[in-house]
Structures are given as structure tokens and as C-alpha cells.
Hints:
The protein has 366 residues and is mainly alpha-helical. It is built from ten helices and five strands; from the N terminus they run ααααβαααβαβαββα.
Amino acid sequence: MSLPDIKMNAQPNPRGQSPESPILEDTSVDRITSFHGKLNRFLLGGNAAGATTELSTSPSNTGADAVESQVKREVSPSNMEGLQVNKKRSRTATADPIRLKIERSSSAASASSSNAIINRTSRVTRSRSSSSAINPKSSSSSRASPKKTARPRKALPTYTPTAADSLLQDTIPPNLTLLLVGVNPGILTGTTGFAYAHPSNLYWKLLHSSGITSIRHPPSDTYKLPALYNVGNTNIVERPSRDASMLTKAEMDAGIPVLEAKVAAQRPEAVCLVGKGIWEAVWRVRRGRAIRKEEFRYGWQDPAENMGCTADGDWEGAPVFVATTTSGLAAGMSIPEKEAIWAELGAWVVKRRAETGFVPITPKIE
């Protein structure tokens, strides 16, 4: 800083004021009359304080001369260095508290923001861990939508058919060559009144393949068989059902004495039980126990097992032939195996009709 750069005017005191109070114009910010100058005097002391004391307390320096001499002393090389150092210190001292506050506030803000992020992360982590603890499968995919549970369907009202619901009638005229005995009517059979009416049933196919009938008849020819082939039909249970397995043993056992009475009254030459289950029911009723595996066999049974024997002994009863079931739901035996068993029965029927002189009538196929 040079002397020409500092502009000072000493004005006379028009109102008689003391010449010890000069008026300074355009004084630099680091002069003693400025805010920073007073701050320097308070904080630093030293050369600035001494200069101020000299300026304010010297009685000999008055007016413009005093101001000029005072300025010369302050702008001397030694004082200039002190003023520059004081200026730097004053700037540092005045700026450091502000900068410190800013740094502290920024550090506090960053710390609070980091704490908030940590707290938010911990809350998310805790929520995820708690949700995964409740449902482990949900942690694998947070976006997985909950599975829709199927509404339980209302159970449809079920109706169990009775014997009165069946339209099937027995065809047992006297002195038949063969009486075919089934378990019970199927649903379609009970509805239509035709024996073995379901298309999957093998009854009509096996009658034809065994030679009992000359053609494969439709179920609607049920009531024509006695006149055409001297063959009849009946069941041990009259109640219709989808399958014979839906019948109880008590129902089947109760039908055996009824069957015995029908056979004794009409006296067919032979009785064919269509299905193993019928013979098992006969065995239970007669012996009071279930038949053993080694005791069962398909085909003709012993003469002691004849059915319909009378109490007075005038009729020895009808021989019993156990054939396979014709139901399409029974898959325990193949069709060729069934046909082999039925072929044995058919051969006997053809032979017996020839011996008695019964001539089967072959219906015309329209």
C-alpha cells in the first residue's frame, strides 16, 4: 500500500470541536476506524493498538499535520509488514468461525442424512427379515402376487337310486336252458330297463362270441332272449348303482336266498353267475365265511354246489357255472381270457339245446 492510495481530508471544526477528532474519508477497510480495525485492536493488540493509542492520546499532533504524520508512521515498512500480517490474521480469525460453523453444520447434516439412510436401511432390512421369517417363500420374490385360492365348490345333492327306480324286469320262464345271474343293474340299465345297457359292457359281445346267441344283439333285445335262445336273466340285487363295488356285502348276501327261491321255482337246467363277487356271496351265505383263494375257480362247480335244491329232494338243483364279469370297469382279465371262459359255457349251451331239440331262432337283421 502506498501513500497516494490513501486519501484523507482534515477539515476545520466549524462548531469548535476539539482538533483531536479528525474526520477521515475513503479510509481503507483495514484502517483503525473500520469495523475490522476495531476487531483487530480487540483480538490482536500489538502495533495496531499502539498506533491507535498514539493517534488518540498525542496532544502535539493536531489537524492535518497530525494525521499525515500518523499515516507516515503507520505506512512505514516495519508497520506495513505488521499491518499485512494483522490483516491476514484478522481475515483468518474472522473467516474461521464462519467456516467452522459451515463445516460443523455440513458435517452434522451429512451425519444426520447418513444416520437417516442407515435407519431407513435397517428398517427395510428388519421388515424384510420379519416378513421372510413369517413366510420364507415370500422373500424369494417381493413382487410375487399372492396365489388365488380356489373357492370350494358346493357339493351337488346326491341321489341314491332304490330298487323301485329300476325298470329292469326278470326274464325267467320255466325250464330255461340257461339262467344268467348278474349282480345288480347299472344306472343306464335301470333307466332304460334293458340288461347290460352300457356301451362298455361286454355282455352282449361275449354271448355272441361264445355261441349262446347267433348274432350280437343290442340291449333292447333283452326280453327276446327266452324265445330266441331259451336264455333268461335276473340279478341278486335290484337297486341300481354305477358299479357293483358300491353295494354292501349285506345287500348281496340278502339276495342269495331270493335267488335260490327263483331257481327252485323255475328250475332252469343251469345257472351262470356273471362275476366272481356273486359266487363269493353264495359262499358266505352257505358257509358263514369268505371263500379262500385256493377254493375259488371259474367254470363249473361241484354238484354239491347246485342251486335251488328242494327240501323234499325231488330236484337236485341246477349246476352252477361261474363266469367272468362283463363290466368294462373290471380290467383284471384280458378280453381273450374272458372269451375263453365264456366259450366253455357256450359249448355246453349249444350241446344241451341240441339234446333237448330246442332250435334257436336267428332274427332277421334289418
